[in-house]
Amino acid sequence: MAVKPNARKEAAEAERIARENFLIMVGGNVKLFRERRYWTQDKLAEQAHISCKYIHDIERGKKCISIWVLRKIARAMDVEIGHILSDNADIPEHLFAYADIR
Question: What is 17-96's CATH number, 1.10.287.1080, 3.40.50.150, 3.90.480.20, 1.10.260.40?
Fold first, then answer.
């Protein structure tokens, strides 16, 4: 059975929107955990050994980050990768109360 061209376009558009929303959610979680530690983007970049511009773009949902970079960010902030990938409803409350002032 052939798929209609319009259906392909709709599926591609839905995929694009889902990807964009996911990147925005992940970036928002990175920002949330960073701010809970009272860290600047510069501090996170320094701790994760990546550029501040890259952190900025991730937090805005403008970069599709590799699993390696995600691991570096998670380790720098001492959080599970899964928490960064989760929607906020899945993040345990005790992680929101953490503040590491350095």
Answer: 1.10.260.40
